[in-house]
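Anyone have tokens for UDP-N-acetylglucosamine 2-epimerase domain-containing protein? Sequence:
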Amino acid sequence: MKTVLITAGEDIIVRNILQTDFLPELKRMLPDAKFVIAVDPKKLETLEPKFKDEHVSLVGFVRGATPRYESLIMTLARSGIKSKTNLWSKMRSYERDHSTFFATYFKRAHTALLGDWDGYKRFLRQRILRLTSDPSAKKLFDAVKPDVLITLSLTNFDFDIPITREARKRAVPILGMARSWDNFSSHGLLRMIPDQLYIQNVFLKDMAAQYQALTERDVPMTIVGLPHYDAYAGACTKTISRERFCELYGLDPNKKIILYGAMGDFLFPEEPGMADVLEHVIEEGKIGTPAQALYRVHPKFQSALERIEGMKHVKAMKPDSYVTNDAASGLSNEELYLAALCHADVVVSGASTVAIDATVVGKRVICVAFDGTTPEHEVLYWHSVKRFYDSYTHFEALMDTGVILRADTPEMLAEEVNECFAHPTPDGAARKRALDTFVEPLGGAGKRLAEAVAKDITALN
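Reply: yep, here.
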């Protein structure tokens, strides 16, 4: 009987992978295997009822303190790729006083000199592998004694990477995947390379070659799609009725719905002001059709809620996590999010993955390039939402497909909302370009990932 250790250090991994067909299919394909899922200990109480059974157990994991030398090596790795997003990340840290001028200058010089050198990236990875084992990872491996590791988020540097490094030191085979479409261009150098890499789309494969010094000559790659999107197939024919959905959020089912999907004020500091913008453009009659807005706050950043209270035209949608259920409806937060996408007449956001989610279900999308109600001259460039359209590598690629509209002012936003109400179907060729690049293969990804993993584990015999 093989023991398979699986990492799930973030709620979004649970949502995107474990709450899909992947785990049930993997258990079916490997009936004699024992699965151990490593999670944040704070999540054990929530996750054990969902996954624990005779084949699956859960264990808490928190990495130990990071030694100073390891912190230095990881700092070099963070600035070890020469992407626009990596530059933005450095400048954001500087402008938020998280990094000094001299540290920022050093990191920028380091990236400029070495960020395009594949040999240097391989050298850094060798140094990372030789770092001292994390004591918590050692205890985990001593207790579980896994025959294989499945790491579901190779860019979770405080969770997956200490575990993956320990697996490599013990010669435990590593099957790994990136968490999201931005991972290879946004999170610095990939610290550890698995024996088999599962990726979601062709974009990640291109980014691996361009920024990570990784091609199929370095590691076998299998494009499987994103299991999370399996639920999107036919979702709008299965979701709750528009009347029921509107009842849950105090909306009028006879009015158009503008769904604002927040990316979170950590990334978009002035984003809460978008609620005021939506309230004003509707109140001032700039939307030609009776309309209302539903502002879906990010599960981790809910600072917009206070200002929405008492608004006439804007209501709030308040998911508290990716994996819990909503008490009022009995539905999961993910089911409600899908219902919101399905019943929206247009979707508005910053530079968020919400744009792809909405494109998958066939909605038109507008991304804002202005900072809410804050005057332009009061917002530093590296804090402004505008930077996402020329300094956010993966999102620039999405905008280049032509499927997303961009609004540079509140007035332009109102005009584009009116345009989308009049013509609610996205351009077919542009949508296909976006899906081909960032989503396909769409449908059946959970089973496809399970098949690939089961095949690779079986081959270890």
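The CA atoms of residues 70 and 131 lie 7 Å apart.
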